[in-house]
Design brief:
Blueprint: H1 18-33, E1 40-42, E2 50-57, E3 63-71, E4 87-94, E5 99-100, E6 107-108, H2 113-126, H3 135-153, E7 162-168, E8 171-180, E9 183-190, E10 194-201, E11 210-212
Antiparallel strand pairs: 1-11, 2-3, 3-4, 4-10, 5-6, 7-8, 8-9, 9-10
Helix pairs in contact: 2-3
Length: 220
């Protein structure tokens, strides 16, 4: 959460006030409410904590994708026991055709299931970077792994992926699925012009189900 930008007479600089936290939550929720597509999360079979994470926007401010966290909050810090964390992050991504950029200077590629797989793969990498590595080596590692994740997402019919059927709003849907030493990644399609990506660790993907979120404000 952000610290409040307005410091009261009794607030030391950098103090996080209840008002500041509430304002930050409202701003976060507003980003999700601005989307023109439905948001997905794990279905009611998951009874653990849920939270909003972040949305991704185009240059013109249009919301293109966003993530909902379930379970533990991912961390690469060694003192958090990262290897024991149990979490699943669900990414909802709008289906979009080839289109001109918001500023009219270029063309944006169409979004596909591969796009959702790439978002999920890069999300997993962001929370699994080996913390014991030297900073420079970690950057090199992340560059290499990111390129590999991109290539894998671009070849969903390749040997790195298998097909996993999971329920989406109660209907079985095929997902592309792969595992690595860092966790698992999957991607598929939902109704309403949405692609679903997901990644996680410590929670089996085989028992997951997804459903549309009726009221995103309850996650704030």
């Amino acid at each position: 959460m952000e610290t409040t930008s307005r410091v009261g007479a009794e607030d030391a600089p950098g103090t996080v006030t209840e008002e500041g936290v509430s304002a930050a939550r409202r701003r976060m929720v507003d980003g999700y409410l601005a989307a023109t597509f439905p948001w997905y999360g794990l279905d009611e079979a998951f009874t653990g904590p849920r939270r909003l994470m972040q949305v991704g926007t185009a240059a013109d401010g249009t919301v293109q994708h966003g993530s909902i966290g379930h379970g533990d909050e991912p961390s690469i810090r060694a003192d958090t026991g990262a290897e024991k964390q149990r979490f699943a992050i669900v990414v909802s991504m709008a289906s979009s055709p080839v289109r001109r950029s918001g500023d009219g200077t270029g063309v944006l590629d169409a979004t596909t299931v591969s796009s959702a797989a790439w978002l999920a793969g890069s999300g997993l990498l962001a929370c699994t970077r080996p913390p014991q590595m030297d900073h420079a080596l970690r950057d090199d590692w992340l560059d290499q792994q990111t390129e590999t994740a991109f290539e894998l997402a671009d070849d969903l019919d390749g040997p790195a992926w298998s097909v996993l059927s999971l329920p989406v709003d109660g209907v079985p849907v095929p997902f592309h699925y792969r595992e690595s030493e860092y966790g698992w990644v999957l991607a598929g399609s939902a109704q309403g012009g949405v692609y679903i990506g997901a990644y996680g660790r410590g929670m089996s993907a085989y028992g997951l189900g997804f459903s549309v979120i009726d009221d995103i404000t309850t996650y704030a």
